[in-house]
Fold these 2 entries.
Entry 1:
Amino acid sequence: MSNKGKYKIPKSHALWPILWRTIIFLGIIVMIFAVLNILAEYVKDFRSEYDTTYVREMADTIDQGTEAERQEALAAIASDGHNYCIIDLYGEVVEHSGSISVSGYNDKKGEFFSGDLKDILDEAGVADDDDIREITLDARSNNTFLLDDYNTKIDAFSEVYDMARNNPGILFGAAGNEVFSFPYWIAAPMSESSQILMVKSILTVKVKDYTYLAAGIIIAVIIAFFVFILMIVSVIMNLSSNSKLRRWLYRDDIIKGHNWLWYAVTTQDILCKRKNAHKTYAVVDLVFVRYRNFVLCHSVKEAEALLRQVVLVIFGKLKKGELIAHSTAAALPLLLEVKDEDDARARLQDIIRTLEAIPCGHRLTFKAGVYLVIPAQEKVALNQKHYIPDIDLLYNNACAASLSLSEVADSGIAFFDSNLVDEEKWIDTVTNRQQAAVNNEEFLVYYQPKYDPRTNEHAGTEALIRWQTPDMGLVPPYKFIPIFEDNGFITQIDDYMLTHVARNQARWLKEGRKCVPISCNVSRAHFGTENLAEYICNLVDREGCPRSLIEIELTESAFFDDENAMITTINRLKYYGFLVSMDDFGTGYSSLNSLKDMPLDILKLDAGFFRGSEDNPRTRIVVSEALALAKSLNMKTVAEGVEDKSTVDFLAQEGCDMIQGYYFAKPMPQAEYENTVIPVPGQQVQAPAEAPVAQAVPVPSVEPAPAAEPDQGGTKE
Ligand code: C2E
Ligand code: MG
Ligand code: MG
């Protein structure tokens, strides 16, 4: 998916706001002038006594009508009080009524004239229609005016108007300053007779119309002025509010600096710039560990002040162009320009060392997750023309790297690598498929027998889970048990295992096979279950399995939880007839401490004691002391992970009760366990390849639950 422009916040440029406001301003001005033009047209709506259409009609009647019609038309013109004349193509006045004198400006000759119309037409050399049209006689007095284009009344008016405007004397010399009038001639050619009818008309203009025009212009200027001022103010306000908005958008009030959004926008800008393509950048998630704890121990105010101090210290260590911001409570995204991974590590170590030294009465720790970005390489890897970074993803990678340090107590630096992604994908796959896997019975119970090293007798078994997936084969528990422990599904797994083991034990008992106690691992997460002992009881009883054939293995980590609840549960489990063992003894720190209060039946020494330490005398001392300690606390012992004969001999000599290790047998599928370890009596036992043969012994009688009272409360069966 393209993330082009994901963090593209438009920059506030002055040019565009000014430009579009100018366009609007000019638009308004154009509109005002258009209105003024309409007004002017109105003002120019001169009233003419005669118009060209009328004169044309008259000319047509005179030209094409009968003699009677011709006389009637001429009489009508004369009776209207209009002077007229008919001239031929040579300018000869054929007929006229009233004065036909004219004064004005001969455009052709470029001079003023005054005189008889006939003379003027002569002088103008009027020979045909076109000549008539070309004659422009611009009247300079209030006497007469000759229209040059008889077809267009508007043009005539325009000329009159221009003339009046250029000669205020005419305008204001008019009667009462209200109305002035112009005499002018309208010419209409008559094609039949090759003559021209000219009729004198009077054009009147109302002076008050100009007042409206002047008022309109003044208003238009005022409006234009205000629009202009508004435009300037609006541009200024727009620019200032834009920069205010930006400041507000990018601000982080806690550190009084920048926030995540600013970081994302700026980082994207930096990484996108072509000139930065050959630089290496480190996107860093720097976490102030136990910040919340600091808040609880002090106050929000003090914690925030400390965070600000942290930011200031980091800021002092940044080079030009590098970034720091604040995203969530204790996370500070940084962008460093580095040479390579070593350089990034050295710089962050320096920053963290300085931060740790901030005197605040607290031991400060910081974790940095780093994702290295080389834009040119990423461009190639992502097959992009221009590298468009997904800042969310880059920062998320850095966060994933810092999260990988969550188990570490001290400050640390971790670099993102693709294994982290694979891990996360695997977690996702397991989580999505876990329930279906239980429903489809994809989880298999493997059995690993435990032997008495002194007699080589099969004395116990541990049930170990395997996941038979349809597509990925057999998945070992270390690949999914930690995930189930994290997401809580482990309780369902423990139930699943207990149920299957109890069901099998009940069946094997019926079949007359040798049934030894089988231990099931119960995770610490299960200790959150109320009345855990009763819950386990129900599970086992439902399958018809004697409780004494089930051993509950508690991993040592489970012992760190609520110790009192743990003691109560152990007591109840024992009371109900279960065996209880401590798994992986020796892997933690408080094993001895746990032993003092826990009424356990069995202690399982972790495989770590026996790995590569056969000849180490110190290890042997520790092991024999641990075995002696267990014995004196009345506990049986199991040694896990024993793979060689010498260790078996040593453990036998030290009085270890059972050995669970590859030396004797590996965890095996149910069918193999049934056939080789607990065959039906009388059936031939197949010996495992290297391990000693497990002896088939008579089925032990199952004792009912002891009558001992549980130490603390609990529902008695
Ligand atoms: P664990 O409970 O300590 O189980 C013993 C582990 O040691 C088993 O690994 C077993 O196969 C291995 N082992 C035994 N003898 C030897 C040996 O001689 N050499 C070596 N190299 N390994 C030996 P596995 O089956 O892979 O189980 C690993 C862990 O997964 C178990 O450690 C247990 O903590 C957990 N787990 C297995 N099944 C379950 C289950 O059903 N529920 C829970 N909660 N955890 C389980
Ligand atoms: Mg175990
Ligand atoms: Mg173990």
Entry 2:
Amino acid sequence: MTHRPSSAGLDPTVADLLQRERARQYYTAKLIPSENYVSDAVLAATGSLLTNKYAEGYPYKRYYEGQQIIDPLEQLAIDRSKALFGAEHANVQPYSGSPANLAAYVALIDKKAENRRILALSLAEGGHLTHGHSVSVTSRFFEAHHYSVDRDTCLLDYDAIAARAREVRPAVLVAGATCYPRIIDFARMAAIAQEVGAALFCDIAHIAGLVVGGAHPSPLPHADVVSTTTHKTLRGPRGGLLLCQERWARAIDRAVFPGLQGGPHVHAIAALAQALHEAAQPSFAAYASAVVDNARAMADELLRQGVPVITGGTDNHLLLFDATALGCGGKTAAVAMDLAGLEGNANAIPFDTRKPMDPSGVRIGSPALTSRGLGLAESRQVARWIAEAIRKREEPAALAAIAEQVRDLMAAFPAPGFGGEVPDRALLGPSALGSGA
Ligand code: PLP
């Protein structure tokens, strides 16, 4: 296979947009903690002609013929998932993290069950939409209740979660977050679940790569069901993965297919098998610990720059800072950063009083830059540019000057997935003029 799918035959408009996005991804400091750069091999599998194939069912039990290659391929991805995470059962078919989470609830809460309560971290304090937020269908089909973080420390308070669990008596206790910068104590969450007779569901979408790389404790010995996305710190294709104890295997498989999905995305499953192979190499453990070191360096440098970091730092791949200390909201800060080539996202801080579209914070992370090989010194430099960009948010020339330095730095750390090719910098257009949506 070639490094990347051939672009021959693309219509000029699509080709132009793809070329420009390629250049943008190469020369921007990708700081969104849920993003990463896949390898050339993962990209090749994702863009392969497996996309042509229907494979409803599971390995060796299909509703379509022509599965001679697909069956062993999906089985390989299943076996590698089980081995890497130490799981009794794996389902590699979820299209992404959100359908995986819905399948987990469907499996854990029988349709005839009277207790349909789930208890999870609230979105505003770091949980995910699919953890029962009112706009998510997870709150339409299940009765959602939430716990929070401590008002003073912004840390999970396990005694308070236990008290809330005794009050709610959920069928499913959810552990996991989309914006929590500290270690989650899955063993403690399991003890709480056991005390109230709930199943424990752990959503490790963000931290899966840290878990397999040994940089975050694993939920596997403790959880009934674990879900993850495959495209964040795990550095695989866009997709979802469910892991569970054997006793939930049948319910999980039935929830995914035929419960919620039709034909699996076999090209993504092949790419996942490749990503799992990469994550099983010793170099991936080094990657996972470098991700945490780099995030800590960014947090420390932001604090030095006078920018408050929520919980005072990080133990994982992400951090959340309060932009209002620099005199603006999170959206304004994130837009200024984007104009300076620093791509993060506006995010609520715990107990935020500002609106969700323009919250107080900005969320950044280190997974993508670490994949390019940036180290502690570069991470600190990036943090200094972040503070400078926000402070100089009304000076287009200053933002353009930072963007040029960011581009120079990115050029010195070639990104995976580009087949060793360096995109033409001219495709970006002039700094600080092409962004700001
Ligand atoms: N769970 C968590 C904790 C997440 O952070 C996300 C995505 O950000 C998801 C689930 C959903 O994943 P997807 O966007 O692939 O549906």
